[in-house]
Known about the structure:
With 375 residues, this protein is of the alpha+beta class. It has helices at residues 5-12, 88-99, 123-138, 145-160, 167-174, 213-231, 241-245, 251-275, 279-295, 302-313, 340-354; strands at residues 19-28, 40-41, 43-56, 61-66, 73-76, 107-113, 179-184, 190-194, 199-205, 317-322, 330-336, 360-364, 371-372.
Amino acid sequence: MTLSVHELFSRRFDGDATSVVRSPGRVNLIGEHTDYNDGFVSPMAIDRQIDLAVRPRDDGQVVLYSGESTTAASFAVDDLARVDSWGVYPQGVVRAFADDGLAVRGFEGVLVSDIPGGSGLSSSAALELAVARALADITDLEWDAVDMALRCVRAENEWVGVACGVMDQMICATGVEGSVSRIDCRDYSTTPVVVADDVVVMVLHTGTKRGLLDSEYNARRATCIEAASQLGVGSLRDASIDQVENSALEGVTLARARHVVSENQRVLDWGEAMEQGRWADAGRLMVQSHESLRDDYEVSGPALDAMVDLALETPGVYGARLTGAGFAGAAVALADASAADDAAQSIAQEFPNRYDSEPLIIPSRPRAGTSLTKP
Ligand code: ADP
Ligand code: MG
């Protein structure tokens, strides 16, 4: 029997938790490596989540257990020494609250997660927002989802030391039941793109984890800034595809800019296709996105290419692409609802013949963002 996070809390600490939070992972349908270029993304929160149960403490200590682990991540709320475990994520959130002059308080808690980590489904943003939601509750801070998402981005950028864009925290905090959110990463406005019952989103986790991502990711970001500067625009969001094609950009810089600028347009086109029920067109745009990420942005990998190829051979699949930063981890597919179960089963069965790894297929409806569920 699986214990609820509330029961786990009571076993670990005497008595009851005072706040229980659920915080979802996410999958990005289209718009990859565009968030840090002020562009558009189309993610949704998924049916995988972190549940966190906490209770305030009076000694200024934060003590958190993850799953069945018997060692806690712990730190004092006023401690400026960076912890060197996963506790750096909750610590970063607490620091970001304090930096903004918000009240902080010690707390103890237990979290459980069914989001595969390090695979592009954003377990890190789910963890940050879970901690932020719990801390806001015990300090009586009014919840402002966008504000808190940006605070968590700062926690990850400045405290954890990962130069992520805003997509993960934004969708984790603001996800809407039943819709993908098109997020404008320049002004943080979101537009819902309804996912009709005719189609199913499938997360196709290859069972592989990313390796040396950070240096590659930072290199891509630097090249985008360089390309924007050569084009004379503030960010690649402001460049048109004609401008890129007719520019003096060359080689890798040209290819990277071509990906970002064409990807922004694909996000807009994809939203229109989804709204109009043109599933084949939506699928085709996802495939173009994958090809652009593979050939121009060079962030795919053998497991991801094998998964996308397999998905595209599978009846009922309209389109598939890598999702998240890339290299390894998860892909995502759009499938016809009537064929999705068979497609999921056949992909799960066949994938190990194509690549030496055990896949995990997660059909998912778009879910709401981080929320409080009192015990
Ligand atoms: P992703 O966000 O794509 O899953 P990241 O590398 O950004 O991958 O974040 C994964 C990290 O987040 C883990 O290495 C761990 O430090 C932390 N993390 C995520 N979920 C949990 C959890 N349930 N318990 C403890 N740490 C977690
Ligand atoms: Mg992450």
